[in-house]
Amino acid sequence: MAENVKGPASYFPSIEKKYGRPVAEWQELVRSSPLTRHMELVAWLKAEHGLGHGHANALVAHTLAEGRAQ
User: Fold this and answer.
1) Residue extents of the structural domains in the chain
2) Which InterPro entries has this protein been placed in (predicted)?
3) What is residue 17's predicted lDDT score, i.e. its pLDDT?
4) Per-residue confidence of the chain (70 residues) as pLDDT tens digits?
5) How far apart are CA 10 and CA 12, in angstroms?
6) Can you say how many angstroms the Cα of residue 10 is from the centroid of all Cα atoms in its chain?
7) Which of 6, 16, 32, 35 would be a feasible disulfide site paired with 40, CB 3.0-4.6 Å?
8) Radius of gyration of the chain (CA)
9) How many CB atoms are closer than 10 A to CB 69?
10) Which H, E and C letters describe 12-54, residue by residue?
């Protein structure tokens, strides 16, 4: 039985389907950006890459949380 994914990661399948790139690529873009603040990164993903707010927010939240956990 598949695990029920919650939180930002629950958006990942639809992000990959809608934008045609693996989540790992999006996360690398976030990590390599000179921007560091959550909402700056969200705005950048929306403006430069055409992501919707919810998708951009989920990617940034998950990526930044991973960075803090390491």
Assistant:
1) 10-69
2) DUF4287 (IPR025629)
3) 97
4) 456 888 889 999 999 999 999 999 999 999 999 999 999 999 999 999 999 999 999 999 999 998 776 5
5) 6
6) 11
7) 35
8) 12
9) 6
10) HHHHHHHHCCCHHHHHHHHHHCCCCCHHHHHHHHHHHHCCCHH
